[in-house]
Amino acid sequence: MRVVVQRTREASVTVAGEIVGQIDHGLMLLVGITHEDTEKEVEFVADKIANLRIFEDEEGKMNFSVLDKGGKILSVSQFTLYGDCRKGRRPNFMAAARPEQAEPLYELFNTKLREKGLQVETGRFGAMMDVRLLNDGPVTLIVES
Questions:
Q1: CA 144, CA 133: separation in Å to the nearest integer?
Q2: How many angstroms separate the CA atoms of 136 and 45, rounded?
């Protein structure tokens, strides 16, 4: 499992001109699932992200998590995170899990975040989406299982 984590002041995702998910301060997550991923990887990554200390304290040190700050999550499925660009000019997506495997794990990931007390907004799995965010910092990290 691979997740790009971006600290954001605001973020939204639009499908066919309609906003389907929107948050103010918190984390924008681009979520990729690969063939080997199971519930174990989902739980590990959800716990890591919920408790990742990437929000600043009064002294400017990253000492607070999204849970500590009462932030929200915008989670967007992103199979292209497993695009392999090492050969040729067209990415190979063979490492990305097929939708019938990826979608339940993506939904479970969002459920695990909600169980930790986080408000989670989402995009629409498999849809063509327009994603907007105001990256705070900028702070962008990659979390992998």
A1: 22
A2: 21
Strand partners, 23: 11
How confident is the model over 80-89, as pLDDT tens digits?
999 999 999 9
Q: Is 110 helix (H, G, I), strand (E, B) or coil?
A: helix
How confident is residue 51, by pLDDT bands cut at 50, 70 and 90?
very high
- What does the alpha-carbon distance between residue 82 and residue 93 come to, in Å, rounded to a whole number? 6
Instruction: Count other C-beta atoms under 10 Å from residue 12's C-beta.
Output: 20
Structure tokens at 1: 């499992």
Q: What is the pLDDT of residue 33?
A: 98
Q: Which one-letter DSSP state was computed for residue 140?
A: E
Cβ of 93: how many Cβ atoms within 10 Å? 12
The residues that are catalytic are 78-80
- Asked if residue 68 lies in contact with residue 55, where contact means CB atoms within 8 angstroms, the answer is yes
Strand partners, 141: 5
Cβ proximity of 42 and 109 under 8 Å: yes
Provide, rounded to the nearest whole percent, the portion of the chain with pLDDT above 70. 100
For the whole model, what pTM was predicted?
A: 0.95
Residue 7, pLDDT score: 98
Residue 20 corresponds to which tokens in the numbers above?
């389907």
